[in-house]
Amino acid sequence: MRTVSEVKSTTIFYGWWLVLVCLLVQAVAAGISIYFYSLLAGEVEREFSSGRALVMLGLTGSAITTSLLAPKMGDWLDRHSIRLIVSCSAIVMGTGFFAMSYTPTVWGFIASYAVLVAAGTVTLSMLFAPVLLSRWFLRQRGLAIGVAALGTQLGGFVVPPLIALVIEAYDWRIAVRAVGLTVAVLIPLLSWRTVIDRPQMIGRGPDGDDPSKAELAADTDSQRLVPGLTTILRDRSFWLAGFGIAVMVAMFTTVLANIAFFALDRGADRDQAAWLVSLYALVGIVFSPLVGRFCDQLDIRVVFAGLLSINVVALLLLRGAQDYQDLVYATAMVAVSGGGFMPFWGAMIGRLFPLPQYGTVMGAMTLFAISASSLAPVLSGVLFDATGDYQVLLLALTVLMVVALLCVPLIRSGQKASGAAHYGSA
User: Fold this and answer.
1) How many Cα atoms sit within 13 Å of 47 on the Cβ side?
2) Quick check: helix, strand or coil at residue 269?
3) I want to staple 124 with a disulfide (CB 3.0 to 4.6 A). Which of 29, 72, 328, 363 is the partner?
4) Splitting the chain (426 residues) into consecutive groups of 10 residues, what average pLDDT does each group show?
């Protein structure tokens, strides 16, 4: 870990260095766990002669594990060392990939991904960066989380072609072992060397401000107003926002898990399918910080409505896609919203709920959102096996997205990004 004197000697606010750390962690962990599955699923389906619905069961199991662990992991991130939790999560995730590479059956693949890989993913890909950066930034929170979220997109842009090359040269098992080693070694080393939980630990306030007595008093007042989890769960905005998040998660999970299948079913080869995944990531790179900046400057409900509207258009494009070129356009549209999803989600929780319970709220909403959307991947496989296409599923997601859009005005606006948290303000 870096010493306080080393940190203070830097001319750039250390929070921005942590943004870079979060970006790198998500490039490795999220880029692999999210974008890798689409390519891996095809290899597993061929080797074990499994139905598509069975292969997609790994994602459903992962969603269940993630939702069950998220509240506890969020609570731990609020109360314990982020550096330690991140390191342990990376080791567990890497172990999952190693176990997967030696499986003799499709069920071993499903279990490794659904339990061990998912246990690491919930911290590294979902909770770590928003929780850490929400402590280091206030006025620029959305931008900071948006820049960090570029890691997911960069990882998605780089990882699929590299994995495709390794699979082509060797096989999918060698590729999975390389992934496991990278996660289990690189992330703990990076985290232990660089992560500092709070700016107050180096004598700074959020955004690099010097802490003052007034700020300390405001922090004390906000602590008194922190609601319990029971109070949060009675909040209408929590459930309305969670419903919209759940529908978006269902869409992104389904599209990313099946995007290679979309391409292969329309006559594309493996390399074209891999680059379609990379296109999703590349477009997301542009829109992640842009949406984050919008979250800092606009009513969070306006951003929410915009993302949901884009999703409706994207789903309609996917339903009408006839060839690979049509899929390119549809994928790019999905990526516009997908790139802005994590910075929006992180900024929204920071607007609607008090900072001391940020991780707890993020975990609880993850439990609701992921649980509600967990059947989408396996349902996509079941419907494909039964009908030969994804039209019914895409139509259902479109309807749910419209319902979520209609619910947005019922969510309270939350506080300004530059202000103090006032739970329950209109």
Assistant:
1) 17
2) coil
3) 29
4) 54 87 87 74 81 78 84 84 92 92 89 90 86 85 84 77 82 88 91 87 77 49 56 85 90 79 74 77 83 86 94 89 83 87 86 78 82 72 76 87 94 60 45
Are residues 31 and 154 in contact, defined by beta-carbon separation less than 8 angstroms?
yes
Place of tokens 């390191």: 87
Query: Which DSSP string do the residues of 195-245 spell out, in sequence order?
Result: --S-GGGGT--GGGPPP-HHHHHHHHHHHHTPPPHHHHHT-HHHHHHHHHH
Q: For Cα atoms 191, 192, 193, give the angle at the middle one, nearest 5 degrees.
A: 90
Residue 388 gets the label, from left (phi > 0), alpha (psi -120 to 50) or beta, of left
The predicted pLDDT at position 221 comes to 41
364, 232 contact by CB (below 8 A):
yes
Residue in 104, 172, 375 with CA at minimum distance from that of residue 257: 375
- 279: its two tokens: 């296109």
For 42, 245, 249, 396, 409, the CA distances from 401, given in Å and listed in that order, are 28, 10, 11, 9, 14
Q: Which two tokens stand for residue 282?
A: 């590349």
pTM of the prediction? 0.70
How far does the chain reach from its first CA to its final CA, in angstroms?
42
Question: Is residue 93 exposed (0-12), middle (13-18) or buried (19+ Cβ within 10 Å)?
Answer: buried
Of 323, 326, 261, 359, the residue nearest 59 (C-alpha): 261
Name the residue among 303, 407, 289 with its Cα closest to residue 351: 303
Are the C-beta atoms of residues 219 and 209 closer than 8 Å to each other? no
Token digits of residue 150: 């570029």
pLDDT at residue 228, rounded to an integer = 65
Other CB atoms within a 10 A radius of the CB of residue 325 amount to: 10
Residue 145, both tokens:
């989380």
Which three-class secondary structure state does DSSP give residue 1? coil
- Residue 186 Cα to chain centre, angstroms: 20
The predicted structure's pLDDT at residue 417? 46
Q: Enumerate the domain spans of the chain.
A: 7-199+224-410
